[in-house]
Design a protein that fits this description.
The chain is an alpha+beta fold. The chain is built from 16 helices and 7 strands. It has 2 domains: about 90 residues; about 140 residues, Endonuclease III, domain 1 (Orthogonal Bundle), CATH 1.10.340.30. This is DNA-(apurinic or apyrimidinic site) lyase.
Length: about 325
């Protein structure tokens, strides 16, 4: 099945900058690959594989969002559109958000730098959990390469007209992956050729010390945490649940709940968001990360996650981040 259709800008609330959204470093998933002017990724829709190709002329606010969907199964355009609207948060009213930003002189400048940027929400919440754990103290390039490597080694592969694509492995599969070379060797026992290369273990994917956290997290998700139930929890209960996972502190927990489950009140705080908030609202003071988190959630309310996203991108592009590095 190949389906081609478009979504007019009148059918989503506010502007859209597709490229900025996909490449903004959100830990829901690696950026979608780009080929022949389309961003493309394999997603699962009702347990069926679907290669989604999507493009938008970000310079044209009146331009349609163009979609090509390819799947070995039959699925309706409405079903595909529903998934796309969810992933790119097209039902979120950016115009109202910009009114909120404009009412705060500290936030108003972010609008021009971030126009059309939306949440890039997970199409696989478990992938978001592992992506967020992998991203801790790690560059965007490195953690995205690690996630892509994990998909190639243990995900399910599908061949489409534009190449091979892979799902993210299930919690059951990932919980049984060797952590490092030694464990991989021990499992192979005496069946190792002389030229054997140790590469089918998590540390070989570049996640380093996080490998043990990832394996344990996969085991917990498989046996104790129902991700569908988690998505329906109140934020407070959900964050307590996610904090039970190894390698997950408040910042990573908030990333998971924001990008993986769309909980907009989450306010992830890393060292840079901490410094940005201090510079904008508390010049000359040094705050604890928890204080910054509480400030962001109380001041920004339901917009907290979006504000964090916009503040960080604004700081990167305006020169604020560079000036903070020099302090």
């Amino acid at each position: 099945m190949i389906s081609e259709f478009s979504i007019s800008p009148q059918k989503f609330k506010g502007s859209l900058n597709l490229s900025l959204t996909i490449n903004s470093g959100q830990t829901s998933q690696p950026p979608w690959k780009k080929g022949n002017f389309y961003f493309q990724e394999l997603i699962m829709i009702d347990d069926a594989p679907c290669l989604v190709k999507i493009r938008h002329d970000d310079a044209d606010p009146e331009g349609d969002l163009e979609i090509i969907a390819e799947s070995p199964e039959n699925m309706t355009e409405k079903t595909i559109e529903t998934s796309i609207r969810e992933i790119f948060d097209l039902d979120h009213d950016l115009n109202r958000f910009y009114q909120f930003l404009g009412d705060d002189p500290k936030l108003a400048p972010t609008i021009d730098f971030c126009q059309g940027m939306r949440l890039f929400k997970a199409h696989d919440p478990f992938e978001c959990i592992i992506s967020s754990i992998s991203s801790a103290n790690c560059s965007i390039i490195r953690w995205t390469r690690s996630i892509e490597d994990i998909k190639r080694k243990w995900g399910d592969g599908y061949r489409f007209s534009s190449g091979d694509f892979y799902t993210f492995p299930s919690a059951e599969v990932l919980s049984n992956v060797p952590e490092h070379d030694l464990e991989e060797m021990q499992r192979a026992e005496d069946n190792l050729p002389d030229d054997f290369v140790f590469e089918r273990n998590l540390q070989a994917c570049g996640v380093g010390y996080r490998a043990k956290y990832i394996i344990k997290t996969a085991s917990i998700v498989q046996s104790k945490i129902n991700l569908q139930k988690l998505s329906k929890m109140k934020y407070e209960k959900a964050v307590d649940t996610i904090l039970e996972l190894p390698g997950v502190g408040p910042k990573v927990a908030d990333c998971i709940l924001l990008y993986g489950f769309g909980m907009g009140e989450a306010f992830p705080v890393d060292v840079w968001i901490k410094r940005i908030i201090e510079d904008l609202y508390f010049p000359g003071e040094e705050l604890k990360p928890q204080t910054v988190r509480e400030f962001g959630m109380e001041r920004y309310g339901k917009w907290a996650g979006y504000v964090q996203l916009y503040l960080f991108h604004y700081a990167r592009k305006s020169g604020l981040l560079e000036s903070l590095r020099k302090k």
